Amino acid sequence: MTQEIIALASDHGGIEMKTMLRQILEDKGCAVLDLGTHDSSSVDYPDYAQAMAQALKDGRASRGILMCGTGIGISIAANRHRHVRAALVHDAYGARMCRQHNDANVLVLGGRTMGPEVARECVEIFLATEFEGGRHARRVAKLGD
């Protein structure tokens, strides 16, 4: 069985959270593909959403986690790509539902709007939750792939 590769990417507003989550994922034995940014210098979030979309399209990662200051801009940029289903979540319930009902392949978090414990919980739930399929599969199929 191959190990799932989780891609991480953020702009400067999410760099602290990305660094923390990378360590958590690695401590859990996950393979991590870090797409940047790598310091707090100001960068443009669409570039990192594009990098995530490309990593998913190329098969270098099966799922991803994106962060910017609020999570809003980077989720808008990521969802421009038809094969990306990026879900901005704020709590455990959202993390669970985005997988169960929406088959989200990218979790989006706000680096400046969410604390580290909630972020950790959201990531753990996102990774552990399976898509329910059934009536939800019909709806997800209408999103295009």
Report the C-alpha radius of gyration, rounded.
14 Å
Query: Assembly type of the shown chains?
Result: single chain
Tell me the overall shape: globular
The structural class is alpha/beta
- Specify the biggest β-sheet: 5 strands, parallel
Strand content: 15-25%
Fraction of residues in helix: 40-55%
Order of helices and strands: EHEHEHEHEHH
Q: How widely separated are the two ends?
A: 25 Å
Q: Mean pLDDT score, rounded?
A: 96
Task: Give an overview in words.
The protein has 145 residues and is an alpha/beta fold. Helices cover 43% and strands 17% of the residues. It contains 6 helices and 5 strands; from the N terminus they run E-H-E-H-E-H-E-H-E-H-H. Strands 2-1-3-5-4 form a 5-stranded parallel β-sheet, sandwiched between helices. The model has no long low-confidence stretch (mean pLDDT 96).
